[in-house]
Amino acid sequence: MAQRISRAKQTAKTSGMPLRMPEAANRGQWLGEVLHVLYLIFNEGHTTTGGADPRPLCRPR
Questions:
Q1: 5 near 12, Cβ under 8 Å?
Q2: pLDDT 10s digits, 15-45
Q3: What's the predicted TM-score (pTM) here?
Q4: Widest pairwise Cα distance in the chain
């Protein structure tokens, strides 16, 4: 996982795209989209919806 994070950071750094907050007029739409993605990640993390193996991705401890 650490290697993936390192590669993602390096890719972001070399891409030249600036990381900044969206303009105030666009923040409402931006926040709604971010929350939607987080919702999808959370739900997919508990039960997969695709692929050949329908077992949960997260197992209770």
A1: no
A2: 988 888 888 888 888 898 999 988 888 877 6
A3: 0.45
A4: 43
